[in-house]
Write a structure and sequence with these properties.
64 residues
Length: 64
């Protein structure tokens, strides 16, 4: 089953420089969430709130 956090991780892993930027806290999570939102919406076939994606990115950042 696809989840928001797994799709956010997929989007981040597609662009390796984002991993470094996330771990060094150099990127704005809200901006990144807005950037990957269309990908996540398309994969889940529904409109996901940007705040949910931001929270998934925060959780992902702590696990990197």
């Amino acid at each position: 089953m696809k989840t928001i956090i797994s799709l956010a991780e997929t989007a981040v892993l597609r662009q390796p420089f984002l991993i470094k930027m996330l771990t060094d806290e150099l990127i704005n999570l809200s901006s990144l969430a807005r950037k990957i939102k269309p990908f996540i919406d398309a994969e889940l076939h529904k409109d996901i709130k940007t705040g949910s994606i931001v929270m998934a990115l925060k959780r992902l950042t702590t696990s990197l």
